[in-house]
Amino acid sequence: MTALVPAAALAAKDTLIDATWVDYLLIALYFLFVLGIGFAARRQVSSSIDFFLSGRSLPAWVTGLAFISANLGAVEIMGMSATGAEMGMPTFHYFWIGAIPAMLFLGVVMMPFYYGSKVRSVPEFMLRRFGPGAHLVNAISFALAQLLIAGVNLLLLARIVEALLGWPQWVSLIVAAVIVLSYITFGGLSAAIYNEVLQFFVIVAALLPLTLIGLHRVGGWGGFTERVTASPGGAEQLSSWPGQALSGFDSPILSVVGIIFGLGFVLSFGYWTTNFVEVQRAMASNSITAARKTPIIGAFPKMFIPFIVILPGMVAAVLVGEIKTLKGGGDTTATYNDALLLLMRDVLPNGLLGLAIAGLLAAFMAGMAANISAFNTVFSYDLWQEYVVKDKPDEYYLRVGRLATVAATIIAVFTASIAGQFGNVMEYLQTLFGFFNAPLFATFILGMFWRRMTATAGWAGLVAGTVSAIGLWYASKFGGAFDMAGQGLAFLAASTAFVVDIVVSVVVSLMTKPKPRESLLGLVYSETPKEHLTDADAAALPLLARPVPLAGLALVLVIILNTIFA
């Protein structure tokens, strides 16, 4: 692992991005809009449900765009462009295999349970299904993960400020944290969601010109493919399958199996179907149908994001001097995480540079705001209210939520230093997902479709799965037991966590007493009548306004994309 190098040291000869007053004006206007939305949303917050879940009042198109924008942070922008620069088009699998199928499954199958049960968080669903043991394990692990991931977004947000203004990184971290803290503390989830919708359009407006200008600089699509073919890694970077550079397996067959099972099933379904950061946006919808359509609507823009995130990383690898040197094994202080920022420096004129910087700031703020807003909900409802101080007035928990927001932002300043130890943030994030999300998905999916699974099995499987993933990772990284290139270790750790969780859960369930069947209504598929999972008027909606046909269309499109770029 290589440490992140301050972007200011890389951005230009004088260590700064060469921005003009036009660029600064665009950035200032963007920040005014962000803070203005936070202040406006504050007037709508009169209860904890307003603060944490937007009063369950938002339409599907708003929550659908927020669903994607909340995920369009460090993972998508810097992490995916870095992996694209390093590996090429196999990175597309993070979207077409590692996101879309799971998002559609969430909308069609799982959201009716989340929304219909009226739980306020994913850990609260665990409490109702499995009891306090599994609930406490899930709530603590989720809260910890959000603090660590928020540090990623904050670190990269601070690096943009550092590159732009030349401030020391610790100053940039604090300034970036205060901006995000301001609008979440004032307006809660509504402020986060409406800002995420704004940020989605700003991000697209920023990255689309970067992609088009970058491709023009390398001679269009033909020149791009020629340069990539001639670069280290060769023509394999131009096809997504079998993706050996990504999986770390030498065998093409094992690579395909690893990507489909490790990424496409365990990591992907574990992240998208149980991660409260995403599910929280759908829970803010105004009906079960809107909640189901939230991730499905999000799937349509999601499948085209690779073309404005991964392709610029690949362009940087054949156009930007420092990244070309890095890829060729030469001596440079740059890391792959710098690919997008350096491409912006080299190809964008003033004005567009300011828009691009605003887009990156928007992405990192969206990601961090999503982490913080999910953390404050879980901390307030699932930890503080459930285990520390019970039966207080609603205003008390609203105040706790705002204080938790402040505390989480401060802690994220320190967790940013942990993320700084990884040269490619995707390695860091996929490792965290393998530890926390993969075993959680195993527990969820087994408990949702097998009524015999017991409360004891719920927490025992989670603990066993997480410990096994951490143990495998430690054995590889520090024990020298084996070594895997690419993202193969993350895939293997996640798969191990999933299998161990399932095995332990089944064994423990057969040895312990299950909950009464009547207590599983709305929590287990076989025990829940269909009318509890749909709105009464859903059947009268136009065909593509219904969740299942809309999901079918998205699935067809992503299969076509996988075929074209195979």
Structure summarized in a few sentences:
This protein is mainly α and 566 residues long. 72% of the residues lie in helices and 0% in strands. It has 23 helices and no strands.
Number of helices: 23
CATH superfamily: Sodium/glucose cotransporter
Strand share of the residues?
under 5%
Total beta strand runs: 0
CATH topology: Sodium/glucose cotransporter
Beginning-to-end CA distance, first to last residue: 30 Å
Q: Indicate the CATH class.
A: Mainly Alpha
CA radius of gyration: 23 Å
CATH level-two architecture = Up-down Bundle
Give unreliable regions as ranges. 1-16
Along the chain, the helix and strand elements come as HHHHHHHHHHHHHHHHHHHHHHH
Structural class assignment: mainly alpha
Mean pLDDT: 78
Largest sheet: none
When the domains are counted, the total is 1
Query: How would the global form be characterised?
Result: globular
Relative helix content = over 70%
InterPro entries: Na/Glc_symporter_sf, Na/solute_symporter
GO molecular function: D-glucose:sodium symporter activity
Keywords: Membrane, Transmembrane, Transmembrane helix
Protein name: Sodium/solute symporter
Topology, element by element:
Blueprint (H helix, E strand, L loop, with lengths): L20 H22 L5 H6 L6 H12 L3 H13 L5 H4 L3 H17 L5 H9 L1 H34 L3 H49 L2 H11 L13 H4 L4 H23 L1 H8 L4 H15 L3 H14 L1 H7 L11 H9 L4 H37 L5 H26 L5 H25 L5 H23 L10 H24 L35 H18 L2
